[in-house]
Amino acid sequence: MLFTVGWIRGSDWSRRDSMDNRFRQRLFYSLKTDPLAMFLLAIVVVIIVMSIGGAWFSSYDPVKVDYKQALLPPSGDHWLGTDNFGRDVLSRLMHGGVASLGASIMAVTLIISLSLIIGLAAGYFGGWVDMVLTRLMDVLFSFPQLVLAIALASLMGPGLSSLMIAVAAVSWPSFARIFRSYVLTVRNEGYVQAAKASGIPAWKIIGTHVLGSIVGPILVLVTLDIGSIILSIASMSFLGLGIRPPQPEWGAMLNEGRAYIEEAPWLFLAPGLTIFLIVLGTNYLGDTLKDALEPRSLNMPRLFRSRRKRQRNESYKNSTQLLEVEGLFVAAVEGKQNTAKPILEDIRLELHPGECLGLVGESGSGKSTLALALMGLLRSPLEQTKGTIRLQGADTKDWEWSDWRKVRGSRIAYITQDPMDSLNPVLTIGEQLRECLTAHKKVGLNKAALKEQVVKLLEQTGLPKETYQQYPHQLSGGMRQRVVIAMAMINEPQIIVADEPTTALDVSTQARIMELLADLQKERKVAMIFVTHDLRLVAQIADRICVMKKGRIVEQGDVRSVFTDPSEAYTRQLLQAIPSLRIPSHIRKIT
Ligand SMILES: Nc1ncnc2c1ncn2[C@@H]1O[C@H](COP(=O)(O)OP(=O)(O)OP(=O)(O)O)[C@@H](O)[C@H]1O
User: Fold this and answer.
1) Contact present, 192 and 255 (Cβ < 8 Å)
2) Residue 364 Cα, ligand 1 centroid: separation in angstroms?
3) In this structure, which long-range contacts are made by residues 399-403, counting pairs with CB atoms below 8 Å and at least 24 apart in sequence?
4) What is the DSSP string of 228-262?
5) Locate the ABC transmembrane type-1 domain: which residues (predicted)?
6) Confidence of residue 298 (pLDDT cuts 50, 70, 90)
7) Which residues surround ligand 1 with Cβ inside 6 Å?
8) What is the value of ipTM here, to two decimals?
9) 214 CA → ligand 1 middle, Å
10) Ligand 1 atom with least separation from CA of 332
11) What is the pLDDT of residues 411-469, one digit of tens each?
12) Which residue from 328, 365, 547, 554 has its CB within 8 A of the most atoms of ligand 1, so it is best to mutate?
């Protein structure tokens, strides 16, 4: 437990807006909806305030000996009793808090500063700098940390400063290794490459682009691990390496109380419980902070989170429409005043079994936002402000993440624009498809049966069975998109939302993927929402069409009538914008 470092997914942190207003709102929401977090926050605040204000709150001298008052049990005069020297335990606890918490905060500051400098340098510069620094970390890792810290503290002599230095000296490598891995991820991001290409000096790139992206995880690590640092300081003080007596410190008080555990248990319990509560509080609050930085987890059920009783409509009916959207409004809620910028307005559409609905419109018209809303994947600051989305008759208004999780993949599946976004580079295609399958069908399938099912589907999507063993980077763009289509089809959903599935492909691959989608859709009688800005693709695949402009559906109808007799000027403009295949005369002459 000593000197451990919390684990956080690196990719989730590379967001520049992690400390903005939205983060504060999410943090406030997390605290508000989690009574245990509020309770522990209150306890942590009380302990800190009592420690800082010990001199004002307590009328007893924490070091003055009075044998006549020795070992008095808790009473109105001495709320937590007295120790073997007749000193008030509460007063010692409050004064000891300054030493314990102060030393822990100083140690964390030292650890973070050191590990940041080393982690940033190793991750950003790579090469020999990285090699030397990581070898140094490896050497330090090869020693048992507590033993090394005790040895260092003993060498420096007892006292809080040597304790802090010893704890920092053995703890920084775990943090530096995590920071290095964040930096390795961020270093290859497009914006860092762009900054390098613009000739910005390395120190400036590290200070703004790299550090700015990892400030979130640093904060969470600090909150999560301050508890274990407090414990380390207390444990070493307990061993007599900390503050010199008679000055109070929690770990030292615990050690002193040990001898009287039967006679005067309050001597042991008071510092023990204080350490327990502060460690529990900081750990739990660190977790809450992590949730606030990771908005997806807010929708997930959490221990002790108060849940409003909701009337959830999960009953799927034999509705004639698979999907019905009525008066849907989506807005981007941002800023201190929570101003709502409308993104989608009064969207009404329906999807019948087996049909293909084309969703077209210029860039920024709201197609992808609508597709995400249909999957329950809207993320802050985007919010559904009004309207209903009914999935096979079930109203999704009050659905939580877990409700959506059950239907995603099994009833409604999603195909993204860029197949690389959907595929994990370190897992084989077979593993990824098996994972999708087992997410919804947990019983009755052994590994061989799963493989057989996956290989069959790969072949149906025009991929050789060897693809099962291959990694995404070993496939062409078209093959990857076929895998993503197989992934969407694997649990036989009734609806597929395909968001510009051919955008990242060349024209001939695009045509083959379109054929595959059309064939699978007809064979499996799946209904599809096909999002695109390319009207030619819609003409090829869709039965009906919705034309979007500035967040609204401006025209809706069957493909033939919209193409031959558009009622909206905007649709006419889109149709006129379809490029013709006429070859310019000067090129014709050459050819
Ligand atoms: N997270 C967000 N925060 C604020 N505004 C957003 C966010 N996501 C999208 N928008 C805005 O919503 C509008 C619609 O964007 P959307 O991506 O849905 O358009 P689109 O039609 O899919 O465009 P494209 O074809 O280029 O992908 C845009 O004006 C965009 O700026």
Assistant:
1) no
2) 5
3) 399/312, 400/299, 400/300, 400/301, 401/296, 401/299, 401/300, 402/300, 402/301, 403/312, 403/314
4) HHHHHHHHHHHTT-SSPTTS--HHHHHHHHHTTTT
5) 101-286
6) very low
7) 332, 343, 361, 363-369, 381-382, 533
8) 0.95
9) 26
10) 4
11) 899 988 777 777 887 789 998 888 888 877 655 677 888 889 899 989 988 899 999 99
12) 365
Determine how β-strand 339-351 pairs with β-strand 323-334: antiparallel
Instruction: Tell me the CA–centroid distance for residue 367 and ligand 1, in Å.
Output: 8
Contact 107, 167 (CB under 8 A): yes
- Long-range own/partner contacts, residues 462-470 (CB < 8 A, 24 or more apart): 462/512, 462/516, 467/429, 467/430, 468/428, 468/429, 468/430, 468/433, 469/428, 469/429, 469/430, 470/428, 470/429
Ligand 1, atom 29, residue with closest C-alpha: 364
Q: Are 325 and 375 in contact (CB under 8 A)?
A: no
State pTM to two decimals.
Answer: 0.60
- 548's enclosing H/E stretch is strand 544-549
Counting from 1 in the atom list of ligand 1, the atom nearest the Cα of 370 is: 18
How far, in Å, is the centroid of ligand 1 from the Cα of 244? 62
Which residue's CA is the closest to the ligand 1 atom numbered 5?
332
Phi, psi (degrees; rounded to nearest 5) at 208:
-100, -60
